[in-house]
Design brief:
By secondary structure, the protein is α+β, with helices and mostly antiparallel strands. Helix content is 18%, strand content 27%. Among the domains are: 120 residues, no CATH class; 33 residues, no CATH class; 39 residues, no CATH class; 37 residues, no CATH class.
């Protein structure tokens, strides 16, 4: 009885083995590829050892593969991705290589590790890349450069002429984007040239500082006595003259006192060897004898030349608008006459002033008069006789007493109004009475 049963079991086992071998093209057929999976080659056809071992092992390994996928979805995804990548490298008619690749993928999933080699270590190479023609791309339009002027004239909101400056360039239209209109500063026309003075510029008198200024075609005296500290020093013994203030310093004009008498004129009548009358002039003073040494006698007047040049002493101090100097020498020797300049007018610039009160403010201006100036007989200077002011109404008033009531009206006058230099206001100078 036992032999028929074993025979039936053997037939069932063979049937199952044949079925697994037939479906080799499907995924389940991969379970027979690696010894790690279904080791069907170890199946024994010994009836006493079979005991449904093949059937039990087939079911166990299928469940194990499913559990691997659920436990390691990342590994499954990596294995699937490598399979999909490499299957594209296989010739579509090479079924054997595609079958091997499928088995390698299942072995990768079952191992629980991501693939470590390209195409699971199978001899599959990527094909040579084909020439790919780049797609036609519509070129972007090139930006347009702005070439016009970067400024333009405009009119401000207040109606003044102005200028707009470019802030940026619109590259689509090639036009400037202009900013706000700013009023343009127009400088006033230059003043007309001042008239020129024709004569040479005069020089200030000795001891004076400053210069002559050309105003309205005329030379105007702008000379002044410089201020020196203290009083003027005196000349030392044996010298005569004064100290003058120049550039804020006392400068000596002292000269040694001569022992010879003053000669004015500095010549005397003489008789020449031929008996004609002539003149002889002083040469120098002999200080030891106190006598003048005379030059030789020159004929006079027939052969006496006219003097053409002179040397002078320094100008005396300005007195009553005049100052003088003396002639030291004449040329040519023995000359007479000529046009020596021994006097000149002099001016002292005024440095201080006394004024009247300021006038009432009219059209934002008020004036005053110069009452006196110093030093005496001075001219010019810089008196301040006009200033700008602001017109405003008077706020407070001081009045006289009310007058006697006449025809039921009495009046009074304003004595003082404040603030100073105010105008107008509402003074009360009249009221009714009984």
């Amino acid at each position: 009885m036992k032999n028929p049963i074993r025979l039936k079991l053997l037939i069932v086992a063979l049937a199952i083995f044949v079925c697994l071998a037939v479906i080799k093209s499907k995924e389940a057929s991969a379970y027979t590829f690696y010894p790690t999976f279904f080791r069907l080659q170890q199946f024994s056809f010994n009836i006493s050892k079979l005991k449904l071992t093949g059937i039990v092992r087939i079911g166990f390994n299928t469940a194990l593969l499913a559990s691997r996928i659920s436990e390691s979805p990342k590994v499954y995804g990596d294995c699937e991705h490598e399979y999909e990548r490499c299957v594209g490298y296989i010739d579509q008619f090479d079924d054997s290589m595609e079958y091997l690749l499928l088995q390698a993928k299942n072995a990768c999933v079952y191992s629980g590790e991501s693939p470590k080699e390209k195409c699971f270590g199978l001899d599959i190479e990527a094909p040579e890349p084909e020439d790919v023609t780049e797609p036609f791309v519509i070129p972007e339009p090139k930006p347009i450069q702005c070439t016009g002027p970067e400024t333009r004239s405009c009119t401000t909101v207040t109606g003044l002429p102005g200028i707009q400056k470019a802030r940026s360039c619109d590259t689509t239209t090639g036009e400037w984007n202009f900013g706000l209109c700013v009023a343009e500063f127009i400088p006033p026309p230059p003043p007309p040239p001042a008239p020129q003075c024709n004569a040479d510029q005069p020089q200030c008198a000795v001891g004076y500082s400053g210069n002559y200024l050309c105003q309205n075609g005329q030379w105007v005296n702008n000379c002044y006595l410089p201020t020196c500290q203290g009083s003027a020093p005196t000349c030392q013994a044996g010298y005569t003259g004064i100290y003058v203030c120049q550039n804020s310093q006392w400068v000596s004009q002292c000269q040694k006192v001569s022992s010879c008498p003053v000669m004015d004129p500095d010549w005397r009548v003489c008789v020449m060897s031929d008996g004609r009358w002539g003149r002889e002039y002083t040469s120098y003073c002999n200080e030891s004898t106190g006598q003048w040494v005379w030059k030789s006698c020159n004929v006079y007047p027939a052969l006496q030349p006219v003097c053409t040049s002179f040397t002078y002493s320094e100008w005396d101090a300005c007195s009553m608008g005049t100052q003088g100097r003396t002639i030291l020498t004449r040329a040519p020797y023995g000359c007479a006459g000529g046009s020596p300049v021994t006097t000149q007018s002099c001016l002292v610039k005024c440095t201080s002033f006394t004024y009247s009160d300021w006038s009432t403010c009219v059209n934002d201006s008020q004036t005053r008069q110069v009452l006196s100036a110093s030093p005496t007989n001075c001219t010019g200077g810089d008196p301040v006789t006009q200033q700008r002011c602001t017109s405003y109404d008077c706020l407070y008033f001081t009045y006289t007493d009310w007058s006697t009531c006449v025809n039921r009206v009495q009046t009074r006058k304003v004595i003082v109004a404040t603030p100073k230099y105010c105008t107008g206001g509402n003074p009360v100078t009249e009221q009714s009475c009984r």
